[in-house]
Amino acid sequence: MSHRVDPEDRAVLDAWHAVGFLETTGPAATRTRLLGVALTIRRAACGTIQVLAEGRDTPLPVAERHGCLWTSLGTPPATPLAIPEADEPDRRLVCCGSIDVHASGLRVVENFLDMAHFPFVHTNILGAEPQTEVSRYHAEWRRDVDEVWATDCRFHQPQAALSAAAGQDTGYIYRVASPFVTLLYKTCPNDALRPDVIALFVQPTQPERCRAHPVMFLIDDISAQADLIQFQQKIFLQDRIILENQRPRLLPLDARAEIPTRADSLSVAYRRWLKEKRVRYGATGAASGG
Fold it and tell me: What is the value of pTM for the model shown?
């Protein structure tokens, strides 16, 4: 199996991909991979960042946004996704470190969208028995913006955030902005009107491997930065154990490959969206549109 992206996989090639955090991009050249292609990242003395791809004479497009360095192997939109909440002055930007995962980046995104595993994987944090039921919610492909959303999601959580003083019924809204970029908006313990925003920017390095870059935009003026990072990393590392044991490592797009339940309606919408967009990288099964 080739590790390089199919030239016709335009939904993946023409997307912006986060390839690291700006705070870790120094003057020394660093190397990473994107869609099977070796990249070299350099910051010039003037501060400009350049991304070079193996086998290409000209630098790749570069953007700096949401604490991350973004690039693309194709022809991306003018800028990476907009997160209006990120511009609110009282929110804290928390970059939670890059984590390697031996699983398809699409599997990592799908896991992020799944509430059913909360009581069993994130016990006494994001869920706990016997409150295991996922209430009915609404999932849809918003064709006007070409994104997948889920609304009216609720789940009882013993500790929804580091700053939470007690358990709470947490409201969730999920947003999938591109195949490897997803966000959730969840009830904030410190603000009754505005949600916390947690983003997961997944860098597909090979079909069955990726790097996850979690970023949070929080309303929390009390918690220490290191504690916020540790809290989120603990949750993600619990997920990594499950993800690396899933088979197949690639995400099946054939509707007959895995049997969904009512709780999986967001996953079903995500897979259908990927299939219609003819996404191949990190996927297995039929990838034809229609």
Answer: 0.91
